Amino acid sequence: MSSRTSPISRPITIRRAVARDAKRLTRLVRGSGAYAGKYAAAVAGYRVGPDYIEAHRAFVAVGADEHGGRILGFYSLVLAPPELDLLFVADEAQGRGIGRLLVAHMQSEARATGLDRVKVVSHLPAEDFYHRVGAVRTGTALANPPAVPWDRPEFEFRIPSE
């Protein structure tokens, strides 16, 4: 099996993001292969700052390795209105279940705060991923040029109470 499609082989920890993670999260967003080519402009100047991390429920997936843990992905849950604002997995870590792990964690966080639904406006290449992890298509977010010159699928995670 290639490393791109192998399951998680080392322990993954999900922890709350902290201000010192901001630069690494920004690099993860800007370096995402999903935003190459025509999509590059959407993240070219994007910044995940310490203020953003403090204002939202941002969590990182950290892999155990010889460097004390590398950020493999992250998500940000906005509570009002409920939205999965960001979800990124490092290119070299994709296909190993980390995105699915982050979504499950997000759903647990949403449930703990009393949310019953969480909206997500998907990047076009991520549409199939959101279908696979249980999100339901609810509509289309229309283009907003010049920042985002294309329509995007809109999804919703329904959060069952326990």
TrEMBL record:
Protein's UniProt keywords contain Calcium: no
Entry-linked CDD domains: NAT_SF
Matching PROSITE patterns: GNAT
Molecular function via GO: acyltransferase activity
Domain N-acetyltransferase span(s) in chain numbering: 12-162
Source species, domain of life: Bacteria
Signal peptide range in chain numbering: none
Assigned keywords, A-Z: Acyltransferase, Transferase
EC number(s) stated in the UniProt entry for this protein: 2.3.1.-
Enzyme class: transferase
Gene3D superfamilies linked to this entry: 3.40.630.30
Protein's recorded name: GNAT family N-acetyltransferase
